[in-house]
What does this fold into?
Amino acid sequence: MQRFFDYGEQLFSKKIELIQKFDLTYFFILQYALPIISMIDLILSLILAKSPCYWSISITAFTLSGIAVWYGSSCKSEGPISQNLNFMMMLASLVYLSHWFLVIPWVTIKMSIFPKKILWKKTIHTGV
It folds into this structure.
């Protein structure tokens, strides 16, 4: 999240290619905007006693994540052999992914109230 606060303006510059802007925009939407929108939608639906509006988008994101987990685990890789994915393992991975819907809104609120500018410095490498 900090990198979007620090480098967000570069998304609108001509320094990066269109496909990179597309990738970063959708990464931002799925990883950061969707959890915040869903949390606000849930809170407002509870306050106003109405059904949430954006949960269909969240369910679609979870479905696509489940498909990605299934596909990724079924592909051959050069690394260690992974277990065959069963329904419980996919469900466990989706439960794990769901924590993002709590963590991201919390971190966003925290970073908005207590902004912290991180200064990145290049690591000096020495040796052979």
